[in-house]
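Practice problem: predict the structure.
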Amino acid sequence: MSQTLKTTLTRAAYDAATWAAQPLLLRKLARRARAEPAYGQHKKERFGRYEPADLGREGRGQWIWVHAVSLGETRAAAILLAALRERLPGMRLLLTNGTATGRAEGQRLLRAGDLQVWQPWDSAAAVRRFIRQFRPAMGLLMETEVWPNLVGISRQEGVPLALVNARLSEKSLASSLRIAALARPSFEALSAVWAQSEDDARRLRMLGARVPAVLGNLKFDARPDAVQLALAARWKSALPRPVVMLASSREGEEAQWISELQALGAAAAQVQWLIVPRHPQRFDEIAALLAAAGLGVSRRSQWADGPSPGLVDDTVWLGDSLGEMNLYYGLADLALMGGSFEPLGGQNLIEALACGCPVLLGPHTFNFSEASDQACEAGAALRVANMREALALALECVAAPHRLEQARAHGRSFLLEHQGAAAATAQAVEQLLKK
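Answer:
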């Protein structure tokens, strides 16, 4: 079988599968809407149908379309948009998201004349309706969001797409190579790919992507929320103990953390423990897990003006709010980075360092491998083998304030060394737009 025929058959099978899966998508959205109501709203947009019918038509040929699937990508998009609006002051933003947290965060980025809708399901019909509805001047896909129909039909309709702040782990590369007949044409159809690192660029080129430049990671250019940091500093000044946070925790990690916390016994009382789950739909689940372990729980959503004074030693703070990670990092003397203690690839540690919070990483950071390795080499982060080592090292660090201050200084230097991606990416976008 020729490669062309194999690609054609694979694409036809993919199109059939995405069409057939639409009822499953609707059921999934209904299920998720029970915990996060946003998933039940504007569902027709998922299939490229918009009300009113002329929605977005006044911006045809002007929209700069940015797709940021979830919370992390939307935060990276915010950094790029600030730089883009400086270069293109009259730009009109068409923002698409795929998750409820991404959409909620994205609402903060909209200005007069901008528009936000759900990412279209990757069926040929939905994507084609989306493209013909808005006719964007160009599209910017954040980090990893390469979908076969989204890319292929955009090219057919004359809409150039670029992959921005692009990253690709070895694991994702291996998965993509297994479906190369589907993945390779998608990467080849992108007008440009601007990679975070040379390793990302190498992997992306293996899938046929054109990578004209390695521009760095946009997240190094993030500026923490000064209001949240000031509030954290005020609250922190009244605390009798240092604060250690399990940040952006994911499934399985909270149980590990509770088990090791209980194993510490009386030593655990040296620290005020804070846990902030990655996904808001799990807030109640984690509160119940803590209570079942015999731990007191003080939820951020119930604080009037900071944590209640006089809490008993076994009370854990639960960060159950959205958009306040800078507040939590400002409160914490040290953060254990979630996603890295189970084989989930880790989370972005740059936000923590920007807030002056040193980081302990578990063994699994393959989604952010270069930033994690470089931070460890710079002394801005430390790596441990498991949760037990993380808690033991956390107690050592908070007992040695000079050690934490040294890590903060290394973190500041590390961030300064890697800044500049936002301006460089905005310039590259402007040049591509002119073409």
